[in-house]
Design a protein that fits this description.
Elements: E1 2-3, H1 8-22, E2 28-31, E3 34-36, H2 38-44, E4 48-51, E5 56-58, E6 63-64, H3 70-76, H4 100-124, H5 129-135, E7 140-142, H6 143-149, E8 154-155, H7 158-169, H8 196-213, E9 228-229
Parallel strand pairs: 1-3, 2-4, 3-5, 4-8
Antiparallel strand pairs: 5-7, 6-9
Helix pairs in contact: 1-2, 4-5
């Protein structure tokens, strides 16, 4: 794997599915350059982790990114009027600062997700919650330190991961068929599912779209513009 993480819900489903498969057949994770956050959670749900010595491992934590551009709107003379039913319906709105109460509400959600994440790592890596929490906190390690701390089982390359898989399946290396999934087979990877150029494009597009939509009146039942990411 080579991933910095992703959606909290998607990563939970992925880890659960890997654990389900791991009950039926040996599964080995190989971290090449990066196995961070949700990606590490997926690796931990396997039976064995091989990581390169210089791979980035860990970053066990949860965050919620909320984009605000009310300051920019003030500078360019753009105003927004939000008519809502429900006091907190526009929580996280990019049009205004967040209140202390609203931030506490969202912080509680993040904290709950964090506890679930650390609990999963503790279970899958045979640690206590306290031990896993000490290694979590968003800290990043290289493969060498991750091995010493018990976050991975072995330092090695892809061939070594295949050798481990062969031993755990009682097969020879020649009997293992390898399917490599390229970027074209999956969504481009960063925390938002876009590469850097696409990310800036969609941020700009989102700002422009919101400013444009502000010229018309429309009812929204779903208006949350943030999500938990690991």
């Amino acid at each position: 794997m080579n991933s910095p993480g992703g959606s909290s819900i998607a990563s939970t489903k992925l880890a659960e599915k890997i654990e389900e498969v791991s009950q039926k057949k040996p599964v080995v994770a190989y971290i090449e350059a990066m196995g961070a956050s949700a990606a590490y959670g997926a690796a931990a749900s396997t039976g064995y982790i091989v990581a390169e010595k210089e791979a980035l491992v860990g970053s066990i934590g949860v965050r919620m990114d909320i984009l605000h551009y009310y300051g920019l709107m003030d500078k360019i003379g753009v105003n927004s009027t939000v008519i809502k039913g429900g006091e907190y319906k526009d929580i996280g709105s990019p049009y205004r600062p967040m209140t202390e109460e609203e931030q506490e509400m969202l912080q509680k959600i993040v904290n709950n997700s964090y506890v679930d994440f650390v609990s999963q790592i503790a279970r899958d890596r045979n640690m206590t919650y306290e031990e896993a929490n000490e290694l979590a906190q968003g800290k990043v390690y290289d493969g060498r330190d991750a091995l010493q701390l018990g976050l991975v089982d072995e330092n090695g390359d892809f061939d070594q991961a295949i050798n481990v898989l062969a031993k755990r399946t009682n097969l020879s290396v020649d009997d293992i068929n390898i399917k490599t999934y390229s970027k074209e087979d999956t969504r481009p990877g960063n925390l938002f599912g876009f590469d850097s150029n696409e990310a800036f494009y969609y941020i700009g597009k989102g700002i422009g779209s919101e400013l444009s939509n502000g010229l018309s009146q429309e009812l929204y039942e779903e208006s949350v513009n943030y999500e938990l990411v690991r």
